[in-house]
Amino acid sequence: MKVALMSNPYNRVDLFEEAGFDVLEGPTRTTEEMIDLLRDADGALVNIIPATSREVLEACPKLKVVSRMGVGVDSIDHDAATDLGVLVCNTPGVNTTEVADHAVALLLSLTRCLHDAIHATREGKWSTDRPTIRTYQTGVRRIAGHTVGIIGFGNIGRAFATRIRGFGPSEIVAFDPYVPQGTGDLYGVRMVSFEELLSRADYITIHCSATAETRHMIDSNALGLMKDTAMIVNTARGPIIDGAALADAARDGRIGAAALDVTEIEPIDPDDPLLHLPNVVVTPHIAGFSPTFLEDCPERQAENVIRVLRGQAPHGLTNPEVIKTIAVMRSTDPGRWEGVPDFSTALAV
After folding, report:
1. Is 237 a known active-site residue?
2. Overall average pLDDT of the 136-153 stretch
3. Which of 57, 119, 248, 329 has the fewest C-beta atoms under 10 angstroms from its C-beta?
């Protein structure tokens, strides 16, 4: 069998070679290059750009499984993959610690005025511009005694909750339509509606997936429900927030501040208003990374493909509906699944 790897310095080519697969690896700057690389592959490691679109998937008749680093798989057309009988895999939990830590760090950067204070000190203002230093001294805020809101209460949202509890918030609330209050109780979190979270929370952090349902869920209307002192952190996906609406709200003082590790377009345009507002901090999509992540994630990403092609369960399957598609294919015309062991019998029930 053949596996195709989009060029990445962290690819574990050795794992595929040890498993006896033929390995194809190359650059894929365009959709056409991606199709050329994946056309005859049984499995593939894919990246964010170019997108693994329906066009790509339909051009690869042997492809059975695609695997991406991390948790987000929004660059892969799930509907097309499911229709065609292709598994979409990720590596759940592999960077939960890193993202939760980064979200806390960004929130502290806002509440403690760290970004501006560090720059002011480097510029010598500690001794030459005491009024500016006093604005930072009086501008810092406590997390203790305030309400923290978490949008998306999966693994990362829960990890954030365990960390932020140590700072003494008066209450932690969360919105996630797929999580019951019983789960919230395990973390001392009260599950609330989206509207209640926006109106109650002093600090809001986003940890939901990027879907059609969540695109621009933080828009001008949502921002209008927040306190004008609210601070918002996003380490999930950029399109969850309407960037233009956020810039307007931050500029006009309709929210207190924002800290983003992700933006609607990445890399962010140097002229984007968000980069030029004093109450907005942006980091370059680094929340999920660490040496530990870069060691563990590529291994699990490769193992997803190896396991599926050997009839074993992957670490993460983000389109479980595909199991029904493949079952129908096996009972009629197996197509791409001809001769491959049935992985579905290895899935945890």
Report:
1. yes
2. 96
3. 119
- DSSP per-residue letters across 71-98: S--TTB-HHHHHHHT-EEE--TTTTHHH
Which of these, 190, 188, 233, lies nearest to 208 by C-alpha position?
233
What does the block give as tokens for 313? 């369960």
The catalytically annotated residue of 285, 300, 307, 336 is: 285
Closest CA to 148 of 179, 109, 114, 103: 103
Q: Which long-range contacts (CB under 8 A, 24 or more apart) does 111-116 make?
A: 111/140, 111/141, 111/142, 111/143, 111/203, 111/231, 112/140, 112/141, 113/139, 113/140, 115/281, 116/278
Whether residue 346 is predicted with pLDDT greater than 80 in this model: the reply is no
DSSP letters for 290-347: -HHHHHHHHHHHHHHHHHHHTT---S-BS-TTHHHHHHHHHHS--GGGTT---GGGGS
Segment 262-312, tens digit of pLDDT: 999 999 999 999 999 999 999 999 999 999 999 999 999 999 999 999 999
What pTM was computed for the model?
0.89
Residue with tokens 């403690």: 112
Whether 285 is a known active-site residue: answer yes
Respond yes or no on whether the N-terminal peptide bond of residue 267 is cis (omega within 30° of 0): yes
Say which of 237, 300, 307, 336 is annotated catalytic.
Answer: 237
Q: Are 116 and 93 in contact (CB under 8 A)?
A: no
Query: For a pLDDT cut of 70, what percent of the chain falls above it?
Result: 99
Annotated catalytic residue within 18, 32, 123, 266: 266
